[in-house]
Amino acid sequence: MSLILCDAQIRPDLFFWNGAIDSTRLRAWLSERNLSIPNDLFDFLLLTGGGNVFETEDLLCPFGSKELGEDFDSVNSFHRSRGLPDNLLIFHIGLGISAIQIAEGLYVSCRESDYSVEHTFQTMEDWYRCTIRREYYGRYGLPPVQTA
């Protein structure tokens, strides 16, 4: 089980998921936009539908609330109007901005001022562990992650 889902079991009061998504519906949404996302993000969205974690962090979803700015389309459209490059797809906002480098399928954290890449991660697990979890685990009493 992924670290984010384990954390959600330990502190369900901090993880508010939008709800599971039908795979056919998600595939259709991706196809309509000619998008490809990493498998681990695809699986995560199927299971959770994205949501809000640690009170301030939004994990976007294709079918999230447009009014609350929790959907891929409106958030990415807004940031594209401010200079977000076409090769990035924002999937997280909060502590910072996190995106997928679409062609490479890598996770990145970006500077909000100019969308330049600060850090690159191979997997969603690495991204979560090194970004928002690192910031919040102690504050919310989650166990530290053991590293080899």
How would you explain this protein's 3D organization?
This protein has a single domain (3-136), classed as SMI1/KNR4-like. Helix content is 34%, strand content 20%. It contains six helices and seven strands, in the order H-E-H-H-E-E-H-E-E-E-E-H-H.
Provide a brief overview of the structure.
The chain is an alpha+beta fold and 148 residues long.
Q: Overall mean pLDDT score?
A: 93
Radius of gyration: 15 Å
Unreliable runs:
none
Tell me the helix content.
Answer: 25-40%
Q: Name the CATH superfamily assignment.
A: SMI1/KNR4-like
Largest beta sheet: strand ordering: 1-2-3-4-5-6-7
Name of the CATH architecture: 3-Layer(aba) Sandwich
State the helix count: 6
CATH topology: SMI1/KNR4-like
CATH class: Alpha Beta
Q: How many E-type strands?
A: 7
Task: Summarize the biggest pleated sheet.
Answer: 7 strands, antiparallel
Pattern of helices and strands: HEHHEEHEEEEHH
Q: Number of folding domains?
A: 1
Determine the N-to-C terminus distance: 18 Å
State the secondary-structure class: alpha+beta
Report the principal-axis shape: globular
How much of the polypeptide forms β-strand, as a percent range? Answer: 15-25%
Structure keywords:
148 residues; alpha+beta; SMI1/KNR4-like; seven-stranded antiparallel β-sheet; 6 helices; globular
Secondary-structure blueprint:
Blueprint: H1 3-10, E1 15-17, H2 23-32, H3 39-48, E2 51-53, E3 57-59, H4 72-81, E4 88-93, E5 97-101, E6 106-110, E7 117-121, H5 124-130, H6 132-136
Antiparallel strand pairs: 1-2, 2-3, 3-4, 4-5, 5-6, 6-7
